[in-house]
Amino acid sequence: MTTIFAVVFLIGAIQSILLALGLSLRKDNSTANKFLIAILILLAFNFIKLSVDESGFYRELPFLIYTDISIALLYGPLFFFFVRSLTMGKKIALKDIVHFIPFAVHFFLYLPTYFLDNETKIRAYEHYLANGFSRSYQPLITYVMKAVQYFCYLVASIVLIKKYKLKIKDHLSNTYKTDLSWLLNLFFVNACFIVFLVVSVAMHSLGIFTMTHSFSRTSYLWDMVIIVTLSVMALKQSPVFQPPETTPEEVSAESEKTDKYGASKLDGSTIDSVVKELLDFMEKEKPYLDPDLTVTTLGEKISLQRHIISQVINSGLNENF
After folding, report:
1. Which end of the chain has fewer CB atoms < 10 Å from its terminal CB, N or C?
2. CB of 70 closer than 8 Å to CB of 107
3. Burial label, 32 (beta-carbon count in 10 A; 0-12, 13-18, 19+)
4. Burial of residue 127, with CB atoms counted within 10 A of its CB: 0-12 exposed, 13-18 middle, 19 or more buried
5. pLDDT single digits (tens) 58-100
6. Helix, strand, or coil (residue 321)
């Protein structure tokens, strides 16, 4: 059985490396892709270590034991930056370093374990294999803190995607390539899985059941599901991994222009006139047949600024674009 899992985790590592390599070689490599590449590299390292553990080679490579103990604290921030870059076009800034403080603190607190002698590391790991997770206070609290941190970043990412989905409706006629519904669903299911893990830890601490090494494989195999999903979406919906044509920040800027009309804001009669012009144009020229029509290109066709079109559609027709 351990040999089967060793092969499975090795396949996960190879898949992660190949996808990371494929994304890095893209000519249109975006900031979002770079965050995804970093995630894939970390996952590849985790899978390689897991493959070594499952195959029994940890005895020959004891220096790898504990090397992945802090990595879990990096996935949340990196997924958040990935989503933020996709939906807002933001690059990482110096102030974003605060997101990595939990990882740094955890790493330095557990740094002494990296320098334990090899025999001590092997005995500790084999005790875990035989008896499962410890029921002592500190390891369980640390495990829960990692899960809660990851859960919070998933929720923050879900909020960003939902806001983005609402905003692009006022600019794009065809949102299936860029609405990130698949990513929203993936993160939602992942968040539910994190809740399951936290409940499992609580039951373990109460002695209801024991979180064995076999149980821990569940979370590792879930990482495999994430990689497979990302791989399929990268192949089938490659535009998802590129910055959207217009970011919500740009859409918000246009909305601010609409709010700044003041005295020059379109009155009811003007809106009715523009609505008639717009509907006549739609009926005669049928621009809606273009699946990639945007409010900007529509504005160019009828010589109107896009924020005026947005106001007319919102106020005159009570619809979004």
Report:
1. N
2. yes
3. buried
4. exposed
5. 999 999 898 888 999 999 999 999 989 888 878 888 999 999 9
6. coil
